[in-house]
Amino acid sequence: xxxxxxxxxxxADLHSPVSAAARGMLGGISLTAARGMEADExxxxxxxxxxxxxxxxxxxxxAVPVGQPGRPSPHINPVMYGMxxxxxxxxxxWGAATWSTGYRKVQxxxxxxxxxxxxxxxxxxxxxxxxxxxxGDEIAxxxxxxxxxxxxxxxxxxxxxxxxVFPSIADVGEAAVVAHYEQHGPRxxxxxxxxxxxxxxxxxDQEAVRAGTLPGVLLPMP
Length: 222
Description:
Blueprint: H1 8-12, E1 30-35, H2 39-46, H3 50-55, E2 76-84, E3 87-92, H4 98-102, E4 116-121, E5 130-134, E6 141-144, H5 154-162, H6 169-172, H7 174-184, H8 188-200, H9 206-211, E7 216-220
């Protein structure tokens, strides 16, 4: 896939293993996209270091500190980021998205009016995977994969158009829902990312992410 393929590949590669020799990311990626604020401002709110941001070090060249003898390694999460149009995007493969796990308790992460955030978090340690959306009004909407936020928003319309909104038991009955998940469930992550990519107009180069050539920073684990 190339940069023109949007971001559906992130979901399609959800379970793809990355070899020990890989310098970037491939499987299990969470995405946070933000606009209406300075890119560095948002990264600093997530915990990025000012000097590290200024260096614009490629992700593959980040030096993650190790613990001293008798002390555990610091809880450091290397992430990569980039810009597409007016959106900053942050990619993480540790099992969740930093913003999704920290916005409730870290005041600096919360957006001001007019600032928009769309987050697709794998939530590997607290499933299921989720979509979070703050559309500019300081209110967070959320939906599990297979659902929309119930707001009848443009994001919800994109989820529906991509096939990422699955039928509910209340609407079609349990047997039909089970059958639908059996047939379409494996494609659901790709459908979700395709919808988010369509809504945001995001295209992210898969080969750059895999190679780790995008800029990176180290964030503290939330």
